[in-house]
Amino acid sequence: MDLPPIVQTGAGVLRARAAEVSLDRLATPELEGLIATMIDVMRAAPGVGLAAPQIGIPLRVIVLEDRPEFLTSSAEAEVREKERVAFATRAIVNPVLRTIGDTHAMFFEGCLSVDGYAALVERYREVEVTGLDEHGAPVHWRVAGWPARILQHEVDHLDGTLYVDRMLTRSFSRVEHVRQRFAGLSIAEIRAELGV
Ligand code: ZN
User: pTM to 2 decimals?
Assistant: First the structure.
């Protein structure tokens, strides 16, 4: 099957506010097809999340998943520091995000629409999201750690925001440089190295 390409930064669709999905489109073959395509594109990339505008569709739909094999391929200390945990595939239509508490976390983050780069981005540690699943059933998910970061990143896409709008600009790097320079270092050590 031919998958749509992932839209890259600079395209207008990534900078526009995406439209709410009207309730009469829930549980239709059209919406289910869109979500299935988004999951395929996310897995092929591979990535841990995708928003509909990233395939050129200006609708408020996101998909997310973090697979156990992604965790085992990362260093254990890094997985622990990021509070990264595997979770099953989720699709959320018309997500509404609420941040919880005032604890933040700073880590390198990338985006399939800013291919090949990463930067340090501060996010809330814990969030809660409500919305609908692909069948129109209510979704409520309260989560902390890495999944909370993925959620904030994907919901940002629906408002035309990219991580580069929130990043510490001095940390903006090609992913290979992040790996070469900072492998095995804590975030505190990386910040000291970068002077941020
Ligand atoms: Zn992204």
Answer: 0.95
